[in-house]
Amino acid sequence: YSTFPRSPKWRREDVTYRILNYTPDMLQADVEEAIAKAFQLWSSVTPLRFTRLHSGEADIMISFASQFHGDFYSFDGPGGTLAHAYPPGNGIGGDAHFDEDENWTKFTTANGYNLFLVAAHELGHSLGLGHSNVFGALMYPIYMARDTRDYRLPQDDIDGIQSLYGPPRESPALPTKALPPQEPTEVPPTEAPTEVPPSIPPTRAEDCDPHLAFDAITTLRGEILFFKDSYVWRKSPYFADIEHDTISSFWPSLAAGFDATYEIDKKDQVIFFKGDQYWAVNGYNIQPGFPKPIQNLGFPRSVRKIDAAVHDQNTKKTYFFVGHKYWSFNENTQSMEGGYPRKIAADFHGIDQTVDAALHKNGHFYFFHGSKQYEVDVKTKKLIRTMKSNSWFDC
Amino acid sequence: LPVVPEKETEDIQFAQKYLENFYDFKEEKSSLFKSKNFNLMAEKIREMQSFFGLEVTGELNSQTLDVMKQPRCGIPDVRS
């Protein structure tokens, strides 16, 4: 294997990509799947995590073009050069270009080039690998059609990419909070021995995983953001499907794994909680002077973290959930109300468990616990119905 | 210099372009150094033959041309 001179590499494990356009040779879904699968090849042997962006500047911008296309390396029509990509870096760094004059396919037939194989090779460059002179290596410069169904990365490529980024973390990230004991659920049958689980961003299929649970949830300027580990699902009235992003693509300096979050829409502010600290954020900007200790809000020293928070825009009260109790904070007086903490179950009938995340929307509270959510009437605090946590994703 | 047949001229031009793209070959523009050019090109052909595990002859033989004509990635195999 080889790397580029001075071995450029991405300095963080969360790398973003964006597909700028599509080839008319293939269905868009097949292009997206080929690209996602190519990323998964590299994420399965490194600590890298890839998130697809649908707008804005991503680390790796992927596009199809022919002949001259704005860089110094024009394509050459059918055959010859199929694609090229740039080593990690700003601007064009990391970008991958595919020659539209080729015939792209999701198959490995003679009359076309398999997009997954070529993309996997080019993304090797986008991550910092040069060419390999090992015949059969993915980073060998010459295209070789091969069976892609259970394509495994050759050892030379694994050695190469791990020389830059090291091996994957030993196990998939554990939930960021100790989820309360759930009823035993059968492990869905896996047709193949489990490999290192993919660490590429959640896909549409995972949106509808019945076991999906969240760390924290909030509204934000008319949208709803669902946080889990280092990812955020974004449900917006402005676009149809659910968007998957990394937290760092919005707030690079905020560590992932929030415990709780809520919006004070009158102030256009979102408050994030992690451990015994909290941050106030306006849009993308973290307000100066943060983080602050949660004791500033009036919590006793014994409270080291909170499980969930939700703000009621009408009463200007914010409820904080810690274990089986909750506090009420008056945003006007900026102080905890007297008589708290109180038992959650005493006031919110039917909510007998702890609360992982909480949301205020459409005149209701939604309390999330594992893969379930409980819709509660804001005024009467009575339980209305129970749903799956991901019912917001139109599964 | 020996008169080079048409086909070979094409092959040499193709090979020159390939070596420029992927092996950092820079043609000496002034004819004064033409002979040096050929040595330089032979050196780059040797480098490419070695990378692909071909017999290292420095000559533009058919095996070498075949490999050069394979569809491939546009990134150089070696770079200064």
Termini separation of chain B (Å)? Answer: 31 Å
How many helical elements of chain B? 3
C-alpha Rg of chain A, in Å?
24 Å
Biggest interface, residues from each chain: A-B, 25 and 16 residues
Q: Oligomeric state of the chains?
A: heterodimer
Taken as a percent bin, the fraction of beta residues of chain B is under 5%
What does the average pLDDT of chain B come to? 83
For the largest beta-sheet of chain A, the strand count, sense and barrel status come to: 5 strands, mixed
Tell me the distance between the termini of chain A: 43 Å
Q: Uncertain spans of chain A, ≥5 residues at pLDDT below 50?
A: 171-200
Coarse morphology of chain B: globular
The helix/strand class of chain A is alpha+beta
Spatial ordering of strands, largest sheet of chain A: 2-1-3-5-4
> Topology as H/E string of chain B?
HHHE
Mean pLDDT of chain A: 87
Describe this structure in words.
The complex is a heterodimer of chains A (395) and B (80). Chain A is an alpha+beta fold and 395 residues long. In chain A, 13% of the residues lie in helices and 29% in strands. Chain A is built from six helices and 25 strands. Chain A has a five-stranded mixed β-sheet with strand order 2-1-3-5-4, covered by helices on one side. In chain A, strands 12, 13, 14, 15 and 16 form a five-stranded antiparallel β-sheet that branches. In chain A, strand 9 (223-228) and strand 10 (231-235) form a beta hairpin. The longest helix of chain A is centred in the first third of the chain and has 16 residues, at 28-43. The radius of gyration of chain A is 24 Å and the shape is elongated. The two termini of chain A are 43 Å apart. Residues 171-200 of chain A have low confidence and may be disordered. Chain B is an all-alpha fold and 80 residues long. Chain B is built from three helices and one strand, in the order αααβ. The relative contact order of chain B is 0.18. Helices cover 54% and strands 2% of the residues of chain B. At the A-B interface, strand 4 and helix 2 of A face strand 1 of B.
